[in-house]
Amino acid sequence: MTTQPARVREMFGSIARHYDLANHVLSCGIDFYWRARAAHIVACWQPDKIADLATGTGDLALALQKRLPDADITGVDFLPEMLELARQKGVRQVVLADAMNLPFADGSFDCVTIAFGLRNLENYSAALGEMCRILKAHGNLLVLEFSLPSIAILRTAYRFYLHRCLPLLGSFLTQRKNAYEYLGDSIEEFPDGNAMCDLMRANGYASPNFEPLTGGIVTIHTARKR
């Protein structure tokens, strides 16, 4: 049986060259706004050292570099194909590593970010704990992730798009339908705003909060290390 990390590695490695195009088309370009909002929140914290986990092709790391040009920002991913694209796009510093087992000392970063990546990790609690480990005391965490709208009619329409339209469009753009079938299923299983806040509290964080965007199809979760 294929393990979750192996499955994710195979799926995302196979679509790396088409990943950015698919993201922008399937979100109708709104993903630029989501990352810009996340970068604005991080910039308000004024961190000096940031780890952007599951950085992929580096879109959030680049948004952070733009808002915080003097910060030390490290993009981390376990797929070399993605990191090579991130380098080509201008991410200054990248590290090949698994977010579940990071090669950084305790308390190394003022801020940790992860965009559309926590949902793909094998164990949410263990991942949040590992992020907390590398944060300095009172350091900040930001998680940008897909979610389900709270308004019933919007949720119904979004689920139809997720499970019926998205796999077909994703297949057309990347020739990998299974990656986009997985996307819809993983969004359904991901903890909602209050549940994620509870998970953060249980793994070393204080003052968890969440901000739904675009009707709740994505949510920004934030918290501070105790």
Characterise the protein shown here.
With about 230 residues, the protein is of the alpha/beta class. It has a single domain, classed as Rossmann fold. It is built from nine helices and seven strands; from the N terminus they run H-H-H-E-H-E-H-E-E-H-E-H-H-H-E-E. It has a seven-stranded mixed β-sheet, with helices on both faces.
Question: What's the end-to-end separation, in Å?
Answer: 38 Å
Number of continuous helical runs: 9
Low-confidence stretches are: none
- Mean pLDDT over the full residue set: 91
CATH class: Alpha Beta
For the record, the CATH architecture stands as 3-Layer(aba) Sandwich
- At the fourth level of CATH, the homologous superfamily is Vaccinia Virus protein VP39
* Gross morphology: globular
The H-and-E topology, N to C, reads as HHHEHEHEEHEHHHEE
Number of domains: 1
Helix content range? 40-55%
* Lateral strand order in the biggest sheet: 3-2-1-4-5-7-6
**How many strand segments?**
7
| Percentage of β-strand residues | 15-25%
Largest sheet: 7 strands, mixed
Q: What's the CATH topology name?
A: Rossmann fold
Return Rg in Å.
16 Å
Topology:
Layout: H1 4-14, H2 19-26, H3 31-45, E1 49-53, H4 59-67, E2 72-77, H5 80-89, E3 94-96, E4 109-115, H6 124-134, E5 135-146, H7 152-174, H8 177-189, H9 193-201, E6 205-213, E7 218-225
Parallel strand pairs: 1-2, 1-4, 2-3, 4-5
Antiparallel strand pairs: 5-7, 6-7
